[in-house]
């Protein structure tokens, strides 16, 4: 969730945070790495250094994995539990925030390939009366515009009352186990006028993917979770990927998640936010996965294993995002990531309360890379640049945690 204002909170990305780092280095453990072949980790030394630098900057811990022509590599840095001092696990499960959007877009593109919808269908055609009022009109918004963030719908996680109740302290601590109905999330957005006329601009909005999830349910007659599981998770054998359906627990193995629960970058109190109900993010960012599963998913996606070439072409028809520091253009559930070496890469990042994730792949799906930080503070730039460009990155690339979350000052999802 990004673009124009400060990122959106919660579900998709990290809020450019570089927020004051908590002195987590005291809990850091020696960096660890494992590789698929003799000397393989030498090809990821820059990546490991970038992970260690993130921990030194204040992030609690980082786990990452890559797969390319040379084999597989995994690395960790920092800790998974601040109190116990245990290291991050190479196979940890974690909340992926807005990377969920890529799964949702994939399902809708599969449905289009099956003739069950057209990307240029209006929201009104599938969900009559849902998007109406305060200048919002579902008769003028298409499915395509929901998926590439050109719908103009206000980002519900940018609503200050919503943030204070569900994403920042003390509201989060009181309401962390609340269940949110998807249509109620849409109502939060509709209480605001649209940001712009549909199709005239690009601006990251979690609201579009809540509506997209509702369209999946209307067309299929099944839950969004069922369709993602049957169409993507099971066929690809993503055994560690799940959709929580409101369950507040993270499945094992997993790390503890930490957040300052404050829009103030100078905040110092750190909260354990591991257990909480992610229904507030639903189809915009509630999924759980691992670095290995996300690498497999993105590789299969870009290699055309999940739908016909026509749909893959449509997914990669990206609208320019000149004002966004994380990506240069956004397609349908994936975007062209900005790098220091101008590498052509497709990606999505995500930020949940206490976690930041980014999955990246080359256009041919042969080199994939995913990392996760188990804190939403101290996240610095450089890991993706290190993996694909061999350096630590440039200051203009914003941390993914912020982009896809709420909206100013911290954006989750």
Secondary structure elements and their pairing?
Layout: E1 32-35, H1 45-56, E2 61-68, E3 71-78, E4 94-95, H2 100-113, H3 123-126, E5 132-133, E6 136-137, H4 143-147, H5 160-166, H6 171-175, H7 182-190, H8 206-220, H9 224-233, E7 258-259, E8 271-272, E9 288-289, H10 291-302, H11 309-315, E10 319-320, E11 327-330, E12 335-337, E13 346-352, E14 355-361, E15 368-373, H12 383-389
Antiparallel strand pairs: 1-3, 2-3, 2-15, 4-9, 5-6, 7-8, 10-11, 11-12, 12-13, 13-14, 14-15
Helix pairs in contact: 1-12, 2-8, 2-9, 2-11, 7-8
Question: Overview of this structure, please?
Answer:
It contains 12 helices and 15 strands. It is of the alpha+beta class. Helix 2 (100-113) packs across helix 11 (309-315). The radius of gyration is 19 Å and the shape is globular. Mean pLDDT is 87; it is low at 1-40 and 393-411. It comes from Streptomyces katsurahamanus. InterPro entries: AmpC-like, Beta-lactam-related, Beta-lactam/transpept-like. Keywords: Signal.
How much β-strand is present in the residues?
5-15%
| Through-space gap between termini | 6 Å
The run of helices and strands is EHEEEHHEEHHHHHHEEEHHEEEEEEH
Q: How many distinct helices?
A: 12
Broad CATH class = Alpha Beta
Pfam family, one: Beta-lactamase
Keywords: Signal
Protein name: Beta-lactamase family protein
Signal peptide: 1-28
């Amino acid at each position: 969730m990004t673009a124009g204002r400060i990122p959106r909170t919660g579900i998709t990305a990290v809020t450019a945070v570089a927020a004051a780092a908590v002195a987590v280095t005291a809990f850091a453990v020696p960096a660890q790495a494992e590789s698929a072949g003799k000397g393989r980790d030498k090809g990821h030394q820059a990546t490991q250094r970038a992970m260690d630098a993130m921990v030194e900057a204040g992030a609690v811990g980082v786990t990452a994995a890559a797969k390319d022509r040379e084999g597989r590599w995994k690395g960790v840095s920092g800790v998974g539990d601040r109190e116990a001092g245990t290291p991050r696990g190479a196979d940890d499960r974690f909340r992926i925030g807005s990377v969920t959007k890529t799964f949702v877009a994939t399902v809708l593109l599969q449905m289009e390939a099956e003739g069950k919808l057209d990307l240029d269908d209006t929201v009104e055609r599938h969900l009559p009366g849902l998007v109406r009022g305060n200048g919002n009109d579902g008769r003028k918004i298409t499915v395509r515009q929901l998926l590439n963030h050109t719908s103009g719908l206000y980002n519900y996680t940018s609503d200050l009352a919503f943030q204070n109740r569900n994403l920042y302290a003390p509201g989060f601590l009181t309401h962390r186990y609340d269940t949110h109905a998807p249509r109620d999330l849409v109502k939060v957005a509709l209480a605001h006028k649209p940001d712009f006329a549909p199709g005239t601009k690009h601006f990251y909005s979690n609201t579009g993917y809540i509506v997209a999830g509702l369209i999946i349910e209307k067309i299929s007659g099944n839950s969004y979770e069922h369709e993602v599981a049957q169409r993507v998770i099971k066929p690809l054998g993503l055994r560690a990927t799940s959709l929580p359906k409101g369950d507040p627990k993270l499945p094992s193995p997993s790390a503890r998640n930490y957040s300052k629960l404050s829009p103030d970058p100078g905040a110092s109190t750190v909260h354990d936010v591991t257990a909480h109900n992610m229904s507030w993010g639903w189809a915009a960012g509630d999924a759980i996965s691992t670095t290995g599963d996300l690498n497999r998913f993105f590789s299969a996606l870009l290699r055309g294993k999940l739908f016909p070439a026509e749909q893959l072409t449509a997914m990669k028809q990206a609208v320019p995002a000149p004002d966004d520091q994380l990506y240069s253009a956004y397609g349908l559930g994936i975007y062209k990531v900005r790098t220091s070496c101008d590498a052509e890469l497709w990606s999505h990042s995500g930020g949940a309360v206490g976690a930041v994730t980014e999955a990246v792949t080359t256009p041919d799906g042969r080199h994939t890379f995913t990392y996760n930080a188990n804190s939403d503070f101290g996240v610095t730039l450089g890991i993706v640049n290190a993996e694909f460009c061999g350096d630590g990155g440039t200051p203009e690339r914003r941390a993914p945690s912020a982009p896809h979350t709420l909206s100013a000052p911290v954006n989750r999802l």
